[in-house]
Design brief:
Layout (H helix, E strand, L loop, with lengths): L1 E5 L4 E3 L16 E3 L6 E11 L2 E11 L2 H8 L3 H8 L9 H4 L3 H13 L9 H13 L6 E4 L17 H7 L5 E4 L3 E4 L3 E3 L5 E4 L4 E4 L6 E3 L5 E3 L2 E4 L6 E5 L5 E3 L2 E3 L14 E5 L6 E4 L2 E11 L5 E4 L2 E11 L5 E3 L2 E2 L6 E5 L12 H6 L6 E3 L2
Parallel strand pairs: 6-7, 7-10, 8-11, 9-12, 10-13, 11-14, 12-15, 13-16, 14-17, 15-18, 16-19, 17-20, 18-20, 19-21, 20-22, 21-23, 22-24, 22-25, 25-26
Antiparallel strand pairs: 1-4, 2-3, 4-5
Helix pairs in contact: 1-2, 2-4, 4-5
């Protein structure tokens, strides 16, 4: 019987110890842990013959074929095949979202940046892959980071302002607004249809001038996961919606503290829709410490669902509009009124049943001024 040992934890044996045949010969399979780099190992066989311990050792090099393929790749096609091999174990989530041309670009970058001695670990390949993806300039996914200078819109080298991102992004693309504080002293005009402004890692937009910071003039725009406030109260709305099919999702908009009573507060508002806007969607937003959460101008249609509004004089002011309300809730300090139906607003649907409207919105306080 022979017992095998190795000086490397990356090595194990299919059979150990091993029963030899009558001639003392034996076989086993050497298993190498996946993603092991090229490693020199010593394997020792130990047995006892007539009470005497006998051993012999052999030194050899073992490696993971998948990692070796990365280091052996000579062209883009070979590198792509190597990094896309499931046995290598890379996280390819971001890579798989790339176009074929972009995957070629990434593979070429990983190839060109390969150290002379090769990538030593799978983790080092992952880092190289991530860096290559981050360096891509993709007009469908443009990146912005507060304070960045001379950027090209890639994640690794982002633009410094949101307006630059809007200018550069394709119709239907996404402007990724990364962490940081964005002082706003000139209006951001969202004038490209079907784009998304997406906050990542809690960016803060800070209004520092007496103006409407965000004006939406193109249809199909989505603003998602931004936090917006101001240095002092301004008699302006933070977002003015001037186009159809706009979605405001998961945003937090609040004003600086003002001294009571609310009737003396500066008329600052989270959102105002222009007259006749259709199919607006507000969902998952939080508005607080404002004179008004949203002023809904005449003939605006759409849905206002699952938002949280508190510490306002009026959460939602409906001025002859037709938006529906569902699942909205009200924090503390409470609003003076949660929903206000102003004079001239229809007595018919969707405001013909005030008890139902109240019940559908967590016992909303409703001021019916019709």
């Amino acid at each position: 019987m022979v017992t095998l040992t190795s000086n490397s934890p990356s090595i194990n044996f299919s059979s150990n110890p091993i029963i030899t045949d009558s001639n003392g010969t034996f076989t086993t399979v050497l298993n190498v842990t996946p993603r092991t780099i090229s490693t020199l190992v010593t394997i020792t066989a130990l047995t006892s013959v007539n009470g005497e311990l006998i051993s012999t050792s052999v030194t050899t090099t073992v490696s993971c074929p998948s990692l070796e393929a990365v280091n052996a790749a000579q062209n883009i096609a070979e590198m792509r095949a190597a990094i896309e091999d499931p046995q290598l174990g890379l996280d390819l989530t971001a890579y798989n979202n790339l176009t074929d041309a972009q995957k070629n670009q990434v593979a070429n970058t990983v190839l060109m940046n390969r150290p002379p001695s090769g990538y030593p670990t799978v983790a080092s390949v992952q880092i190289a892959l991530n860096n290559a993806i981050d360096s891509i300039v993709d007009p469908n996914n443009v990146f912005v980071r507060a304070g960045s200078v001379g950027g090209n819109g890639s994640r690794a080298n982002p633009f410094g302002t949101i307006q630059e991102g809007i200018t550069a992004v394709n119709i239907g693309g996404t402007v990724h607004i990364l962490e940081g504080t964005y002082p706003i002293t000139t209006q951001i005009n969202v004038n490209k249809s079907d784009i998304t402004l997406l906050g990542e890692n809690d960016p803060l937009l800070l209004l520092e001038a007496d103006l409407i910071p965000i004006l939406i003039t193109a249809s199909g725009v989505t603003i998602d996961d931004l936090t917006i406030t101001s240095d002092i109260p301004y008699a302006k709305e933070f977002i003015q919606v001037g186009a159809n099919n706009v979605s405001l999702l998961n945003n937090t908009i609040y004003g600086p503290s003002q001294v009571l009573p609310m009737s003396n507060w500066v008329v600052n508002r989270a959102v105002v829709s222009q007259v006749g806007i259709s199919n607006i969607l507000l969902e998952g937003n939080t508005f607080y410490s404002l004179r008004t959460g949203m002023y809904i101008n005449p003939n605006t249609t759409g849905a206002i669902n699952n938002n949280v509004v508190y510490n306002t004089k009026g959460g939602f002011l409906v001025d002859r509009a037709f938006t529906t309300f569902l699942g909205n809730s009200w924090g503390i300090p409470p609003n003076e009124f949660d929903i206000v139906l102003l004079a001239g607003t229809t007595m018919g649907p969707p405001y013909n049943n005030i008890p139902a409207l109240k019940a559908a919105n967590n016992n909303a306080t409703i001021s019916d001024q019709r």
